[in-house]
Amino acid sequence: MRKPIIAGNWKMHKTATASEAFARDLCDNITGAAVDVVICPNFTALLPVGIAIKETPIKLGAQNMHWEEQGAFTGEISPAMLQDSGCDYVIVGHSERRQYFAETDEAVNKKVKAALAHNLTPIVCVGEMLAQREAGQTQTIVGAQVRGGLAGLSAEAVASLVIAYEPVWAIGTGRTASAVDAQEVCRFIRDTVAALVGQGSADCVRIQYGGSVKADNIDELMAQPDIDGALVGGASLDTKTFARIVNFQ
Ligand SMILES: O=C(CO)COP(=O)(O)O
Q1: Angle 74-233-146 (CA atoms, 0-180°, nearest 5)?
Q2: 211 CA distance to ligand 1 centroid (A)?
Q3: Which ipTM was obtained for this model?
Q4: Please, is 119 exposed, middle or buried when counting C-beta atoms within 10 Å of its C-beta (0-12, 13-18, 19+)?
Q5: Ligand 1: centre distance to CA 197 (Å)
Q6: Which pTM does this prediction carry?
Q7: What is the mean pLDDT of each run of 10 residues along the chain (249 residues)?
Q8: For the structural domain made of 5-246, what CATH number should be given?
Q9: In the record, which residues are listed under signal peptide (predicted)?
């Protein structure tokens, strides 16, 4: 039985001060959640938010990281730094990183391995662009991203991580994939994982859907057999809405 996991990706929103206040408000609104809850603020907010949620079940995640331990990589942050800041999770290969910062499957793979080596659970993002979906290439693209991102990992490692299916055309557009379409791709991702490392891991790995998840579509999405959670952008920036998403039916 896979425990659902709902994560909020705050992207480049909220200062550290605003993030801390928001996190405290969130703690008051999310009590006794039956699911894993993760919030991913910007780097400068990790420490204060980590302190704000310390005695609560809410976990801390980062939005990106470098794969190296340390070194001359101006502007980057290492897995050890994230761990030291209180992170348990890190988002890897978000489509905005792939699109605007030229992140490749090879880089994603290095980041996934580095995260696991530092006891950080990677949330590995995959998803096709609109033109690719319309050209009937969804499975080709998503399959290659899954195989590339998870290359060389043991069955046990794959079982421990989280995969987020985020169709690029559904991110921030208000255009959610239908629950049936999302289920179909999440099922395909699970089958791809099974072919890669075996059915046992495929049965354990948690797969989130992301892309315009809102309070009014979460229930239908979570009712799908292969959707184990959500990676929420815009709707995670409102306390009441995010609390409602976490408390899906
Ligand atoms: O990119 C996303 C989460 O990582 C989804 O963003 P929205 O929920 O704003 O569409």
Answers
A1: 70
A2: 5
A3: 0.99
A4: exposed
A5: 28
A6: 0.97
A7: 96 98 94 89 98 95 98 98 98 98 98 98 97 96 98 98 97 89 98 98 98 96 98 97 92
A8: 3.20.20.70
A9: none
